[in-house]
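In the previous chapter we treated chains in isolation. Here, by contrast, the input contains two separate entities that must be folded as one system, with a combined length of 329 residues.
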Amino acid sequence: MEINDIIKPENCVYKKPTLLNDTNMHYCPGCSHGVVHKLIAEILEEKGWGDKAIGVSPVGCAVFAYKYVDIDWVEAAHGRAPALATAIKRLQPDKLVFTYQGDGDLAAIGTGETIHAANRGENIAIIFINNAIYGMTGGQMAPTTLLGMKTATTPYGRRVDLNGYPLAISELVAHLDGSCYVTRQSVHTPAAVRKAKAAIIHAFENSMAGKGTSLVEIVSTCNAGWKMTPAQANDWMVEHMFKKYPIGDLKNE
Amino acid sequence: MAKFRGAVVVNEERCKGCDLCVVACPCDVLALQPKEVNNRGYHFAYMQNPEKCIGCASCALVCPDACIEVYKTTEK
């Protein structure tokens, strides 16, 4: 059987979702952001939610999310995505409203907005990309940076006496009564990508059903910030990140 | 027993040569071009052993830039 006999439209099992447009992404090679963008585009396309969805993009590496996924987007001030999503969802309750935030946005400057939005039980889905570093600004320490991890601002590793402990946002949000679904996923293997997709679908369904706030944390890599190749970064994440940020559902009501 | 045959088409201009598809491939099909580069200077992925492909789509799932299309059929 020749290759040309296999490559036919009727044999196609996987292709780029049409909601993900042809603009080349600005992300570094191997960045987890690209996978999550692709998952969001796939889900919205498969479920037919493309016209209903309103995304709120953060400040950080994902600031240009509106250039890549072809739905309605609003760009929030730094850390204020959950507050803006609250307003949008209250004004347009029939829409699917989600925020897409990194750890510098959600866990640092926007901690207050995140926790209060979840505490009020706003019917929004929050997608949280946790790569334990400030990627866009050059790899500085984030609140989620692991102890001993070297970054641009902690060149000898993060120390407890100087920098405090890493912040586990998902555990915090899971304690709040307003949140209905809190999970932690990753996208480093094909199986993990499938599970992350199922988790995002569940979060979007919760938002549509008005059950409360859903938080999907994606433990990600930042190979450029960590100074590794993409494959090494995945291995490093499995070895170190999963100890502090274990994968699995924290709350599912 | 019917045998699955697959093939992938890489969008060469979109590919950034991150190597994640090569690592994810269970059948050792993909590799990065050793010498050729695309317009942006990246060594893009290609099918080094096309006859081994089973069309599992593992490469496409982990691809951060959605540049892989997967085709699958059964050999009769």
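Residues 27-252 of chain A form a domain with the Rossmann fold fold (CATH 3.40.50.970). The longest strand of chain A covers residues 179-186. Compare these points with the single-chain example from earlier in the chapter.
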